[in-house]
Amino acid sequence: MRVLEFDSVSLAVDECGDKSSPAVLLLAGATQSMDWWTPDFCGLLAEQGLRVIRFDQRDTGQSSASPPGSPDYSDADLAQDPIRILDALGIGSAHVVGLSMGGGLAQLLGLRYPRRVRTLTLIESSPIGGETAQLPAPCAALVAAERDLPSVADWADTQEVIDYRVAAERPYAGSLGFDEFRVRAIATVECERTTSMESAMSNHFLAGSGVPDGDSPEATALTDPSLIAAPTLVIHSDADPFFPLPHGEALAAMIPNATLLRIHGMGHEAPPPQLWGVVVPAIRDHVLGHDQPGAHDAGTA
């Protein structure tokens, strides 16, 4: 793991796999550090012949942190950070895998930097651009659990923050159940290496879009998934309590060159180990089926 320094931001990056293999860049969900893309999951992808890159988005892990409640960046900045990473690593284009908010950022990448995106894989995500009014809302149990989640009294108390992190993740589990031992282990690693967990748990939700307002052609071009050209794999569960399955179905219907893989039992989460035997081969086949020799040399947007 290393920290890449840019003019305005520091981004912690980790990678595994052969550097001559197709590059796969993993984008975590809101509030999540790279730790939720666990080393064993990344290792499995690397064993499939992929170069796997994960990183801490701003306000998570060891990347730049803003004061709690005051992010100094927009969603557009979060979408540009992967391009900074690809440039620093000398990678012209990559296969982008995004979870939840990371899937929204992946859509922005596909629209804003199409030459840098070989394929998209969107996991438990939803269409960007505001075209979601007819899609189902989060389930009532999740809404109630978030409302009743106790606040953190002392963000300097690591054990209290870990307990809070575990409690916050619990209602997002699907019908496969909640693996508290595994989630607690990830949360412990994350809390021990994150600059400010208070910032991490709030700031992503407060960042502005960074996209022009209104119905201008520029705004539409930056927020319309139907304009995404990259081959896209949509992975979505029938048990996601936050973005129910119709969100994934809508994404697959909107993006011209998209395929939907329905998963049973997964919650709103990175794929758990029970499903790696399905998800890892699906990502491998999608990536290798749309890869081209020489596509990974340094390039520009």
TrEMBL record:
Matches recorded under Pfam families: Abhydrolase_1
GO molecular function, one term: triacylglycerol lipase activity
PANTHER family associated with the record: AB HYDROLASE-1 DOMAIN-CONTAINING PROTEIN, HYDROLASE, ALPHA/BETA FOLD FAMILY PROTEIN
Any one GO biological process: glycerolipid catabolic process
Keywords, sorted A to Z: Hydrolase
Ranges that cross the membrane: none
Gene3D superfamilies, per the entry: alpha/beta hydrolase
Protein name per UniProt: Alpha/beta hydrolase
Domain AB hydrolase-1: 22-270
Source organism of the structure: Galactobacter caseinivorans
